[in-house]
Write a structure and sequence with these properties.
heterodimer; A: about 475 residues; mainly alpha; Formate dehydrogenase/DMSO reductase fold; globular; B: about 450 residues
């Protein structure tokens, strides 16, 4: 990281923070008794989670028949929700791994919460394929190991099995990455704590002393994990896209699916990060750490990935015509003008058209607008998966088996329940760990604090003289 | 020393290489088949390759500016020089367009007007609907007919002129703002703000239009075949080639004493880019190949089937040179900081992406030509089964198609020399390191 900072870069830490002040601000929330709003949110989340548990229990007790799936539409809300949650789980590792490799300093403000979100989202996602199996008690059949089931062995040719490997690897590496980042911060919490808290954080921080050797190992581990996690970010949604694209179903079998799914996943992941961070920064008074500059950067990522997704949608649409293949052409005609036209419209509107508002700098820096946009995008990305799954399946090659699908209360209950699970975990996380990475924010203070860079910098900076005197030959 | 001078010696050497290219093209033309397929496919191949590098240079400059990247400022002028080659590329494309109109070449099956409409009368007039005196057109190709509102000479001509023209205007605007910043830039950084604006506008335009151009120029060689990934795949290939050529240029300039402030830190990052995007290219290659292989749909597999069975050197050589070698060589940190190793890999990868386009273009051009010659000899006997693919058993090695021969390499060197000649002439117009750029300080003190 260069110590010289461009005069046009905006600061990423405001309020002229000292190192101590950063610790106070970021560790503080873990040391206080939760307020009323936290308890209220927790109660609501637990309520939703309970509904989810009841619905899952209902599904397992009475069987998959309690869902509205039928012979034609074998995948409905379950797989839509699975892909949706998996997609959301992409931003965290993108921020922590790819942006680390690209030396993006603004990642430090949001990486911790984004990684936590990733882990919780992947947990929600993993739930769906498992209960979709019907006989959940046989879920261990997905693991390939020498067994006594005779010829009943996993199908290595199936992308569904690759999903098992991809997602479990992704979950493991993301968890490791997250925890690695947490170790020095847990040590900071430990050093300020007493009694039983001190014991717990002592255990969690693995005896971290902050010695140079520790930091050096920590840095190399972070880099190694970033190197491992980067292909994983791509692989997970690539393989999810293979679930569809390896088939010969018109509308699913298209070669652009892998990169387009990855772009869409990052798109929805960032939207969810924004939804959460906008609430979190307000609730925990973190406006000086998650600044408008951070929000704007994330909105730019959203604009970029949303437009990539837009290019992919139009490519698909165009090539379906260009292919000269009538079933392919029908699949896209059916998406746009068939029985589920509203979901196609919702997808196009929320994912392609609405992010274009972010061309305006004013809107990129408008918190309220960004918040609504982030919700919009999450709705749009849900529609995208619904369009791909339900719309396509509802109109297959054989008109006699054409069908329509609406979810039952059980399916809705499970989906709502995953929100409960997600927010319960997130709320717990916001109480036990600093939601902004303390050590990493401190690492950028001298190159991104507002007393060092930007219009109000008070510390002298050698960059300006440097620029004036340098190479003018 | 940051003012590049285009020396007489360099001009001579490059001029000789251009001459070599012209001689090779002439020889190719004379020793070619009756349709001059090798000549024209070489022309298309090199034009698309170098125009693509110019396009990607513009795109990557715009993308870096929009992403607030600072480290590349020190060598930004190289990309500016590359991007201006778009105007030369447009000139070269005009030759291809002329060839379509005047029927000088048969690169594209869709230029066969006899195949596009289902009915024909005795006077040789074609029609979409059956009319008095019309009978069924024996040459009719239903797939080409269906695509003819996109695959036609008007789209090819005006799509190309408008698109590449617009790209060039953006490249020129970015360049003139950058030059003006040298002269008049101050701490309000108003030039940079304008550059940022132009860059942001360029990105979506480039993203949409480049795909359409790749479909027209390259994918339509296999007019029956289609793949949604193809445009991104080809763009990734261009991008790695542009990176490699940038690294080679930097190393050359440093060897001549220019760009003293450019250090191993910059090369390290460029090496990382080359590594990462070689892997990205492979990712796109694999996704496209795997999905087509897995679905095993004859209309799609024909593309890879032809290449794997009949052109194994192109098919596997492409993967070895563009994935295996850069992946293994650039894996370690140290190798990405050594000018020699990075330079060697860049040279390899640059050639390899040229080879990738060779692999995309040549087999298809050959099939189209054989098809056209066959149709010509059997006087209108349009063979529906052939539909653009030859039979395995009859495949014979043909220099310039199965493998690049001396003439093709000579042509490549000629085009490369033209590109470098043009880039040098543009680099000589201004300081090699931009002045007054707000990110200059970061770039000069870059440390990874």
């Amino acid at each position: 990281m260069s110590a010289v900072v461009s005069p046009i870069r905006e600061p990423l830490i405001e309020g002229g923070k000292s190192y101590h002040q950063i610790t106070e601000d970021l560790v503080g929330p873990t040391e206080k008794v939760p307020g009323f709003s936290w308890i209220l949110c927790m109660a609501i989340s637990l309520g939703l989670f309970t509904l989810g548990i009841v619905s899952i229990f209902w599904t397992i007790f009475f069987g998959i028949g309690t869902w509205d799936l039928n012979r034609t539409i074998g995948w409905g809300w379950d797989i839509t929700n699975f892909v949706w949650w998996i997609g959301i789980g992409h931003a965290g590792t993108l921020i922590s791994a790819i942006l680390l490799l690209f030396r993006q300093k603004w990642r430090t403000g949001v990486n911790r919460a984004a990684e936590a979100m990733t882990i919780f989202a992947v947990m929600c996602a993993g739930l769906f394929p498992v209960i979709h199996m019907g006989r959940v008690w046989l879920a261990f059949f997905i693991f390939p190991y020498p067994n006594t089931r005779g010829p009943l062995w996993v199908n290595f040719n199936s992308p569904l099995l690759w999903d098992v490997f991809a997602i479990s690897t992704y979950f493991t590496v993301s968890l490791l990455f997250w925890y690695t980042g947490l170790v020095p911060d847990f040590a900071t919490v430990r050093d300020r704590a007493s009694g039983i808290r001190k014991k717990i954080y002592s255990f969690l921080s693995f005896g971290w002393t902050g010695s140079a050797k520790h930091w050096q190992r920590w840095e190399s581990l972070s880099l190694v994990l970033a190197g491992l996690a980067t292909p994983l970010v791509l692989s997970v949604h690539t393989i999810v896209s293979f679930d569809f694209a390896t088939s010969v179903i018109p509308g699913w079998h298209t070669t652009i699916f892998p990169p387009y799914f990855v772009a869409g996943a990052i798109f929805s992941g960032f939207a969810m990060v924004l939804t959460l961070m906008i609430i979190t920064r307000k609730a925990l008074n973190l406006e000086e750490y998650i600044t408008l500059q951070h929000v704007e950067s994330m909105n730019k990522v959203i604009l970029a990935t949303g437009s990539i997704v837009g290019v992919a949608y139009l490519t698909e649409l165009f090539i379906s015509w260009y292919s000269g293949y009538i079933y392919e052409q029908f699949a896209f005609y059916n998406r746009a003008a068939g029985i589920y036209w509203w979901s196609y419209f919702g997808m196009m509107f929320c994912n392609v058209i609405s992010p274009q508002f972010f061309w305006s700098k004013k809107l990129r820096r408008n918190i309220t607008f960004t918040f609504f946009m982030s919700i919009f995008i999450n709705i749009g990305m849900w529609f995208e998966r619904f369009v791909i799954i339900a719309t396509t399946l509802a109109r297959d090659y054989l008109p006699s088996s054409w069908s329509y699908y609406t979810p039952t209360w059980v399916e809705m209950g499970i989906y709502i329940g995953t929100f409960g699970l997600f927010f319960v975990l997130y709320l717990l996380f916001s109480r036990v760990a600093p939601v902004v990475a303390v050590a990493e924010v401190k690492s950028i203070l001298k190159t991104a604090g507002d007393q060092y860079v930007g219009a109000n910098a008070t510390h002298t900076h050698h960059d300006r003289q440097e620029r004036a005197t340098h190479i003018n030959d | 020393m940051n003012q590049f001078t285009f020396e007489g010696k360099q001009k001579t050497v490059l001029g000789l290489f251009i001459l070599l290219g012209l001689v090779c093209m002439g020889l190719t033309y004379l020793t070619d088949d009756e349709l001059h397929t090798r000549f024209w496919s070489n022309f298309l191949h090199n034009t698309v390759f170098f125009t693509g590098i110019a396009f990607v240079s513009t795109f990557v400059m715009a993308a870096f500016t929009s992403a607030y990247a600072g480290w590349h400022t020190i060598f930004r002028r190289i990309w500016e020089a590359y991007s201006l080659f778009l105007i030369v590329g447009l000139g070269l494309l005009m030759v291809l367009i002329g060839g379509v109109w005047l029927h000088y070449h048969h690169l594209y099956h869709w230029t066969d007007v006899t195949a596009l409409q289902p009915y024909v009368n005795d006077a040789g007039v074609y029609s979409d609907v059956i009319k008095e005196g019309f009978k069924e057109n024996p040459n009719y190709d239903v797939v080409l007919g269906g695509k003819s509102s996109f695959l036609n000479k008007y789209w090819y001509t005006f799509g190309t002129i408008i698109t590449v023209g617009v790209w060039y205007l953006f490249a020129k605007r970015l360049r003139s703002l950058s030059l003006s910043e040298d002269e008049n830039g101050d701490t309000s950084y108003s030039h940079h703000k304008k550059i940022k604006f132009v860059s942001a506008v360029f990105l979506p335009i480039a993203a949409f239009s480049s795909a359409a151009m790749i479909w027209q120029w390259v994918m339509s060689l296999d007019a029956h075949w289609y793949s949604t990934m193809f445009a991104w795949y080809a763009t990734a290939s261009w991008f790695v080639a542009a990176l490699a050529l940038t690294i080679l240029m930097i190393i050359y300039l440093k060897s001549k004493g220019y760009l003293e402030e450019l250090t191993g830190e910059h090369i390290h990052d460029l090496g990382k880019y080359m590594f990462a995007f070689s892997v990205f290219w492979t990712y796109l290659w694999f996704s496209q190949y795997m999905l087509i292989w897995y679905a095993n749909n004859g209309e799609e597999t024909v593309y890879f089937h032809t290449r794997m069975r009949q052109y194994p050197v192109l098919f596997y050589g492409n993967l070895i040179m563009n994935f295996a070698l850069p992946f293994l060589i650039l894996m370690r940190n140290e190798t990405k900081r050594k000018f020699g190793t990075v330079g060697f890999t860049a040279a390899l990868v640059f050639f390899a992406h040229w080879f990738d386009f060779f692999q995309m273009i040549k087999p298809s051009a050959r099939i189209n030509a054989e098809h056209a010659m066959h149709a010509h000899h059997s006087a209108g006997g349009h063979d529906h089964e052939a539909g653009g693919h030859a039979v395995d058993a009859g495949h014979q090695f043909l220099m310039g198609f199965d493998f690049p021969g001396f003439l093709d390499i000579g042509t490549f060197l000629g085009f490369a020399a033209l590109f470098v000649f043009f880039a040098f002439s543009r680099m000589a117009q201004a300081s090699l390191i931009p002045k007054n750029d707000p990110y200059l300080g970061e770039s000069l003190h870059h440390h990874v």
